[in-house]
Fold these 4 entries.
Entry 1:
Amino acid sequence: MDDRKEINFGPMNISFGSAFRLTCSLLLFPVLASAQGPLMQQPQDSLDLMTQMWHALPAAEVGQVGLAAGSLDPSEIPGSMQRLSSKMLAKMSYANPMQTLHALAGLNLVEEDGFGLRPNVGMRGSGSERSSRITLMEDGILMAPAPYAAPSAYYFPTMARMESVEVRKGGSQIAFGPQTAGGALNLVSTAIPDEQLAGRVRMETGSFGNQQTHTAIGGKSRSWGYNLEWMQLASDGFKVLDGGGNTGFDKADLVAKLQWTSENGQHLLRGKAMSSEEESRETYLGLFQADFDETPNRRYAASAQDLMATSHNHFVLGHEWKVSDHVKLTTEAYQTRFERNWYKLDRAVDSLGQKIALGGVLEGGSEEVLGWLRGANTPQGAGLDVKANNRVYGSQGIQHRGRVSWGGERQHRLTFGMRVHEDFMDRFEWRDRYAMDEGNMILMLAGDSGSASNRVESAEALAGHVQAALHWGRLTLTPGLRHERIALSRLDFGDDLQRTGDGALRTNRLNVWLPGLGAHWDVVDDTWTLFAGAHRGFVPPGSSPDTQAEFSLNVELGTRISSPAFSGQATLFYSDHQNLLGADLTASGGTGSGDLFNGGASMARGLELELVTDFLEITGADAFFDGNSHMPVRLSYTLTQAEFTQAFESEFDPWGSVESGDALPYLAPHQFNASISWQGPTWSVDGNVRAMSAMRTLAGQGELLPNQSTDACQVADLMLRWFPGEYVTWFAGATNLTDQTYVVARRPYGLRPAMPRAWRFGATVEF
């Protein structure tokens, strides 16, 4: 793509060349600042809102389960790292992870249901379908239901109970995996309190029957520590079902943590047990354009039976051994089981038995079938098939990592790790035939369990990595190497519903080496640094031996500024993907087979900007408030240009007939987020604005077509908080304050709306 090519975002036009010049100007900022004298000092209570957020990464903020664990200095982290602290998460207290993650640059986000129950998160143009192309973790443990065999994240950890969020991109991904083409996302759950007894109760209510209850209690006494946590989220739903009915969800998490530390502090044992249950009346059925224009929050009668039921259980047992001041070893054994049945409308069938895809109907296909979806009677012999997407996932493994340091005052460090892992996905699905009668779904024929899909996908993997941090004066080099040895298989039993036969077996094996190199240069002490890196990215293929793994060359160049009054990070990135992998998911408009397939080559490049400051401090306006008020500001912006670099034909509808230069679908060229607060001694006003440009829904070039794109959006949220005492916080606010209506997706079947304005009220008690 030519540097002069522009992408429109409202009134703003930014080219890649302009972005490069902007980054160069940021590189010079510390020089100009130092020429004007030292920056103003910030009071201690504002530091957490700035440098402690993610740039300075002080030792106290780097948790044992964080992605930066083992890195005692920012120079030892190759590539860009971002972090949202507990205070940042508490500002808006979003339950929807998509709203929270908008604050981070470099993430590609696609909304779906308005609640963020099944987020679509990508990084640096890697693709966002079901967050399958990033490494998703909770407390450093893989959390996709089957990270190797079926990485689509139909389970996503509950954001509302998290203590912090960490993102690693660039060469730092070598320590994680298996997906290393985009980045790693780690959600850090509530830690065991340092006090003998501490707890919190948070209750919230609001529009559409939205409810949230979060309780946690724990403490430490001598060698023992514990934390018990319960969270429940519920809503009646903001969509209105034809004929009436609930369109919301109910989700509950229970988490228990136990920890023991030896008297000399050398050994630490910790255990974690978690259980999560969900019932959500969610559907893949969207709206026809004319219906969306009239009533965007409508739900067709044909989706009345749609229901997702899930059960998730997760266990971890870990041991840390501080062998000496120079050697530390950590070992964790984990096991996860996830069961789900998403019972949802799948297709229509006419009176001749011909199967009709719903996507085509909602794009202007059969008017008669569209009438059935709206509630018109189906004729004799015709019907609507509701598929029971019944699956069981499991994963388990042992991972070991260590840190060895040596040298003088600024010690060199070697980190290493190994993981033995296995996972599976068991599909046992069926379809039930319904007739539409006077707007009601009537069961006509129940399908046989397993008749729609009857197979087991499994994976075994041995992964290892080694990464060094070598210091020479102001220069730090971080070479690294990752190795993945993976065996993938599928056992398809077909019509053998009792699974008494051998089934049809296919396998795919691979053995890959993934090198990387990072460099970090302290230009002005720890205030202004430059970093650069390159690594080989990787996305595992499916079990088909005809599908090849996706590899990519990923390069980045960036700078960090960390001072008492101003922090920032700017990163230019470039990725060249070969054997690009696509997934045939219903969620992305495919047939739902789940197969991975190769789709030629692609390129992604862009810019990530993040700035954090206190406006009153940096302007000196705090003098008018006697230093009792602060106005922390956090800005992030992402420019992403991603396109195919090879022509090919695909049966996958969002790709279709691809020409070189076609932009990838469902990647917003521009994303922006601004968080601004005004904090007084006993109150705060917290505002958040997020904006996103329109996205293509089909691969293509030139101007966006209205029927092949989402809507651009600018959404404002507001939260008012009052602290009448040391332990109590009252709050009230609203999301989508201006009640903006816009299309967030056109997949898989029809237009899907964002959540309208929602009011929120509640209180938090801490002790």
Entry 2:
Amino acid sequence: MEKTILLGYEYDYGLTSNEISIDIGELLYNVEIYGMIGRGKTRLVCSIIQHLFHNKVPSLIFDIKGEYAATFATEPNVEIFTIGAPHPLCINLFDTKDEDDVSGTLLVIEEMMVSSNQEFSPSMKNLFETALFLTHKAEVRTLETFVENLIALAKKTKQIKSIQHTLDAVLNRLNYILNPISFEILGVSQTTLNFDMLEQGKSIILDLSQFQKRAARPSDIYLICNLILKLFYKYASSKELTNKLRYVVVLEEAINIIPHFYRKQSSASLITAENNFLLGRSLGIGHITISQMWNSVSNVVHANSSTKIVFRSGQEIEKIAKALNLQDFYFKRLQQLPIRHCFLWKDGQEYVKEMTTVNFTLEPLKYDHYLLFLRRKYHSSTYPLLFSNFIDMRTALYDKLTNTKKTKQKKKEKPVENNQISKKNPDSQKEITSKVEQFKKIFSEEIKFQLDDVCFTFCSLSKDKKKCMKIRKDAERVNSSLLKRFTEYEIKQAILEKSQISIDELLKQVLLENKLSSNSQVLFCAKRELINFLMRSDQELSFNLSNNSKK
């Protein structure tokens, strides 16, 4: 016997009578919910979601307003992702596993361009694709690597007069889709969204409320949501076909995700939401679509949803009446339904039923309390953001390549030893002491949290002992090589940014030579241990100088 979800109670001329439920398995055939703002849609959906959680049905919830996240934050089997801290939603599109992945990434980004009216020309696509395959072959595969490859390719083919214009056009188009808020999701070194947790009986809530709070464009929400859906359906497609419900996808404010007005054609369909309604059933995916207006979402939703729930509506009455086969009495009633009253229509049902929805009493946490709860729950999560924004990234990488060229020219004129690190040594105890103070400031967080080991606070691997030990061993190898090649003072100059090469560049160079991955955790661990070593060294030197002066 199927488990059921109580939706409400049949309403008959002022009398409340029979319970109205839906079998959980029926969600495979999709449910759509419509009605004006403030009529009870969210409360009904919250009740359905609570039943899904308690019956351990894995769900992926697109929460545009943040209401579901704040309501179910304390549920033990729910993972909430936010834009930025405290538990960042991150997607590294460039971490490709094979050439099929590369082609898929190209199609995704190309579709994002088309959707934003920023189509690629043939020359732009050629440059973009070449850089994408170079990135796939690189040891570190991120947006940063990709942009660096774009700029490097343009410089190598500078004899072609139009290449600089092509590069600028590609970067400008990327800049359009990688606006500040989208960049916080896509401009990262690693992906944090892991659909495998659905297999463990957990559900995922994507708190996308920052899009609205920061006045993002509707197209930004649209692109990110459809990108996530595309990745999710790719994940679901790797499993065997089924005719039973496996996952439920909740599309809140569906006008932002599967709008009626989208009708562009492209070789790559990022509009996975439409395809999902056509193909999702064979993958065991059911959908719950919520919107304020009947005509705001794609007709594909209406045609492929076997259960329709409509609250009081003031627009598109004729279309709703036709879809629900409303009689005259119900046609007039639709415009007068009280709060928590709605019409329910299911496939095979001749007439609609009016019902009062179940009384859902769980209140969402206040926003400040909600954030505090998430910070405590995800206190050790890291945010692998590469740069603060895309403009900073492209500028820094362009300057880096230009400076590299100038540096090589200077070397030909006058060789400088040890990567241009100054060899001038300090000759006073005062200078040594000031350096020690500067080192302390670099890791002021360590003092702030009063912890001997800041890894627990800043590193996501701190709870995974095996990964943590591997990272520490790599960091030790790097520091050992670095201390053999350079003096302590030379390294200090790089740390204090008083040399022409930074400590990060030095560490990345040594990591590359040792064929080690230069991810953020290794760099963090290496710098931290290196600075601690130098601080201890300086304190010992300061102590010795002090004793010698007394003698």
Entry 3:
Amino acid sequence: MTAGLAAWRLLATLMLALLLGGGLAGCALLDPKPTTDAADAPRPPPLHLEVQAAAPLKALLEQHLDLARLAQVGDDESLDDAEWARLVAAAPAQARELLQTEGYFEPQVRVERSAGRPVRVRVTVEPGPRVRVGSLRLQTEGPFDKRLAAEDKDAVALRHALEDAGPLAAGAPFRNADWRDTKLRVLTRLRGAGYAAATLADSSAAIDTNARSAALSIAVDSGPLFLAGPLRIDGLQAHDEETVRHLAGFGPGAPLTETRLLDYQDRLQKSGLFEAVSVTFDPEVESATATTVAVRLRELPLQQATAGIGYSANTGPRTSLEHTHRRLFGRAVTAHNKLEWGRDAQSWNGDFTTHPGEGFYRNLLGVQVERIKGDTDTVLSQRLRLGRTTDTPRLERLYFGELLRSRQSLEDGTIIDARAYSGNAHFVLRRLDSVLLPTRGYSLSLQLGAGHAQSDAGASGPFGRVYGRLTAYRPIGANWYGTARVEVGEVIKRASVRVPDQLGFRAGGDESVRGYGWRELAPRRDGRIFSGNVLLTGSVELARPISEKLPAVWGAVFVDAGRAADEWKGFKPALGYGVGVRWRSPIGPLKIDLAWGEEVRKARLHLTVGVTF
């Protein structure tokens, strides 16, 4: 009776456990042995993989072999001897497939596994000869072929560009990655040339292992050439559609190339009217002959003010205030005013320009009042300019007539008043990798002017003025960067004619000849400094990052030379040289230079620091 009651109690306990804890919990009650946690189970020892091959191939195999992946997993994978044998046996074939992607189609691969634990596997590779590209055949289909047959010059130029688009060419090592890149670049370049619906029709790579040569073939279907139709402009609130249309630079029927659209987008961005710009089109084949170009804009605020503080070794501490109104009195006119107040220089510049019109031109009215205090004189000048200006990504042009008055006050109380009326043309050409922080390319500034001058201290008469400044940037070696600059200028006139001091030239100081005071390298008469009729300066600078941890901080060495003079006869440049530190900040390079002036036999610190807020 007691045994039966115990059995019933055991059965009731099992049923209750099944109801409350589930079948697995109930079964656990039947097993008196504790369950072993999977994390505590024995794990296989880690795999040690050794690949013996040339560095690029070694990296390839260590990244993609199944054995390599296993070595990276850790020790939570459980493999038996059969699985190890399978992986080792498969490794040679897998390695050969990987090596073929690099152009090695006859490699010798040997895989060895050591007995015992830990597991050690050695993969030895002798790649053998490499297959190279024997020929690359490019076929085009569609409307592009028709233009090519008609000897359209743009189509002929594009054909040559397509043939040189990718990294693979006759004689180059065959690599799968380069083959894919070549096909992609051909297609991308064709689409960028206006054939936005171009597709890859066919491609093949025939490998001749005996000749160790690859015959490559690419066939592309160009699809139609997309031509510009109407502009659809979205986002305008204050400004005129006419301004946006003038900045396009192309009309209906123009091929919609990537360069054309990017240039349009760049002009809109540089107009100073918009905060965000997008120029796109939908490549719908049915509307290819008159494709709608979508221009999406977000305007900048109508008014904007900026204050700044800074310091320059030339003019000392300074403050500035700028104000921009992008639609003055409700008209398509931008007004930009800048007031700058420093220890030795004060100025007000007011520019009033119309929004871009046909040919990207703007009409310009400019006013400037400037006072500059030198060591021996103070010059107050007023300018009034009226002209036209146009900016493109590579070239700025400014044509204007100018009225200039210069009032020079000498230390002894003498005042020299001079005036000039002139016509001028200024050009700025840039071929730089970065406008803000260039390291490669060049910029050229050229100024031409002619007019009539009169002065209290000289005769009246005609004059001409020429000025040029060329700055070149070039990387030198792995970490060095070189900068070279030359500037030359001359006022062409009779000796008796006196032009306003602002039209003459002075040298010395930052961005000129370091080691000397600002504007002090100029002719002296009776101990007083005057602007010269001729100017020649040059500079060579080498710079490099100070350390890998501070790539934006550069050290520099430099040599400067030059001066301004009354005439070229007897011209003797002053020499300055020294060392410096540059911080290539997001707002431009900030510089500290210590320079020795050979002519004055003393050192001078040159510092240019500015903060805008």
Entry 4:
Amino acid sequence: MSAFSRRLAAAALLAAGTIALPAASSAGGLDCARYNQGNRTAGVSDSASGAGPLRMFAIQYRQEVAYAESYQTYADKMECLMQAYVKPNLDPAKVAMVVFNEDIGLATLATGSRGAAARAWALNPVPADTPALYNASGAPGGVAAAFGLVAAGYSRQLAAYRARFPDEDPRKAVITAATDTFVRGFMSTFSRLARTWGVYVVASNNQADFHYSTDPADVAAFADPDLAAEYAAGAIKGVWVASSDKAWNQAFLFAPYHVHDPESGASEDVASPEYDPRTNLVAANKKTPLTEIEKLFLALDDGDMSTANTGPVTLSDLPGFKFGFAISLPAFRFGYDFGTTPPPGETWACASPDRWMLCLDRRGVNTVIQPEANSGPWARYGADGGNWQALTWGASTLRAVTDTAVHFKYLVCPHMVGNLVDLPFDGQTAIVERDRTGSERAYVGAKDFIAGTDSAWAEPYSGPKPEFLALAPWVLDDDPALTPEANRARLQARAEEMQAGSLSAEQNRYLETAIFADLATP
């Protein structure tokens, strides 16, 4: 048996208590010192206060699978992010919106006893004989093994859904199997945050649409075994069940007020274990187009180009704002070359997901929300000898507010950071504005355009830009004393040290932080 296989087998035997969070330092109440671990800022790292009616927060969450030990620990971590970054900066005269990153709910797959083996596996990823990083699907071997361990924990739910949806792609089945977990963990957490804090909240996850059921057969098939005592006592009577074998990468916008009545049998009471998180759901966006890892590893379903999916989304207390979503890859898809003129109108623009941004513009969106989980190091050249990652990111954020063929006023891009087993995520959270003047900023390593190294199409995104209203720092600043080439080499060395398996003291020391900016009515 290989070392990889031995570790996999050992992880499957570990109990949930083996990978508990750090011990609380005080008794009673929420102890955020327990959850605010690692490399992080104590408060927001950049802000832009102004006269606008909307205070937009973008949270750069550093993921840690241990936070998903239980529904409560996950909710506590998100509450602590709100206390650290949002609470000190709320303005009662402004509407607040708090935007979290793409895939922030994915780690809740590892919740409870069913996810204990996967959490244990994540403690010490990348054994020496792990399969090659980034296989054909884009998923490293350690992440693939973690999903296998999760699937083992959900064997009862997998079997029940296989009987219900016999044609479901098995690569996607664990996402469907975790529907009840996602509703109780991910969706309920962010829905409750919106209501209890009185703010709009955006958060994202890969999941199926669902309904509530008290059918004894459904409860027997799909209920969380860790809630057996609550079911026995009658505190919980139903279960959240996937409505089909479709699952999407979705962004959800929750309001601080009532939007829908709860499904029959569920509750609108945020304190209820039967709370329906859709009661304050304003909008949901289903991602299209998809990345290779989403298509080949997770086998997610594509969203569509309907107005229900593209928006614009309007809110009664923010007249003039017209919101749309671009979950990572779609934010790069304009469908025409920067500097050229695409066909007028929305017919051509909205005929293909490869023109997603142009379609949003043609349908009237003026404020783009780009939840982000960039799977790869931030300060590095492409694995195939391509461009500097942080420079090319301007092809989404900066292009949205500098391309004259579209008319977006704002774009908000919160990044997830941290290693998910052996899959790294990194970036710099940003809020950008069209036609802004004043102070200038740049992504790390992007202050200079290096002719002969950087592609000509990326040159418009190089150099300090006034369009950055607020920009999170990276773990290192640029060193102006070095040549551009030497500066990038220094930055890339740190990015490599932060990856799983580096055995460096910098491993997984990505920066957790947040930014905010006040947005004037577009």
